[in-house]
Specification:
159 residues, mainly alpha, 9 helices, single chain
Amino acid sequence: MVKYLIVFLISMVPIVELRGALPVGIGMGLPAWQCYIICIIGNMLPVPLIFFFARKVLIWGKDKKFIGRFFTFCYEKGEKGGQKLQSKSKRGIYIALMLFVGIPLPGTGAWTGTLAASFLDLDFKKSVIACMGGVLLAGIIMALASMGLFGAIGTVFNK
């Protein structure tokens, strides 16, 4: 039970999210499908709060003494992510959002994607669905990588 809680909490952490929690859970010996579900729930739980409140909190904290630099960094990251998403996607913004969240690279998860959607004033429901699709995609990629599938494929093709 404690292992599941650890995985759940890790999946809620910005930047690390599901992409870090899933390998940890699989590495602790948890069944991949259970770990996958726990990570998805943990990763998606903060999304509504981020969408509705993160921008306001970041703007509030940008000029504060101890947290200002970090809040400014986060604010600028969300703003740049939103602009980049908008410029590359044109009409398919929600598909672009899903792919942005789904590519398991640092800084492209549900936190940044939701923050970008908030900055772009996108529709909440469609943004959550796109982020969910991205989290599901990232989870599949990370589960396969964590279980060694990519290493096995590489071994087959390198012979």
